[in-house]
Amino acid sequence: MLVAIDIGNTNITIGLFDGDDLLKQNYRITTKVRRTSDEYGLMLQQFLMFANVTRDEIDDVIISSVVPKVMHSFKNGVMKVFGIEPILLNPNLNTGINITLENPRSTGLDRIADCAGAYYHHGGNILVIDFGTATTYNYVDKDGNFSSGLISVGIETAASALASNTSQLPEIAIKKPEKIMATNTHEEMEAGIFYLYVGGVDYIISEYKKVAGDDMKVITTGGLGRVLCEHVKQIDVYDPGLIFKGLKVIYDYNK
Questions:
Q1: Arithmetic mean of pLDDT, 33-49
Q2: One of 6, 110, 114, 141 is an active-site residue; which one?
Q3: In terms of DSSP bridges, do strands 11-18 and 2-7 run parallel, antiparallel, or are they unpaired?
């Protein structure tokens, strides 16, 4: 079995593969820099318990991280629980795609894993959108070249900034409002954030298709991808386990 771990700015998510089958992808803990290796180790033990597997069944661990400050503690936690030196995703690994951006080493490793998984499972000429703390748009052409991308504020980040930087506006949930003609502050914020974001995503996809062609596929992932894909008609596939599939692809290429 392979444990695939994605360490993001907000959450750490863990997936479990038995061969090529992704068994579990919903174990999620909050990313905190000050946690010790023992704390991370206890959380990993809980994951094994919830997945109903033992540490002896785990053959390898692969990690993608965009938060360097947690890596020392987290890596040691992995070694304490599994007795395994984890494989850390880095630009020197074979990813199955060519990163042709101007500075590949500055590209988020989570974006690379998303693209590897999307290209392997869905083919080329794809736009991969990850709705996370930031929203990233990543284009992979038919030849497997990760050649273009956009980075924008995540929808939850935008809503949080609006509430925290204004004295009289409340925090809101991210959901489609009941009506566009809002009549109170709370509904006005929900409608404003939701429709602005949906419209922006749709516009960016349209602009990409002007260059890449109307046959370009749009694959989405990330926590809020499910909400948004229901309302952006140009999205073809929502794949919540995409980054785990990408880590599995990269693991296979390198093992």
A1: 92
A2: 110
A3: antiparallel
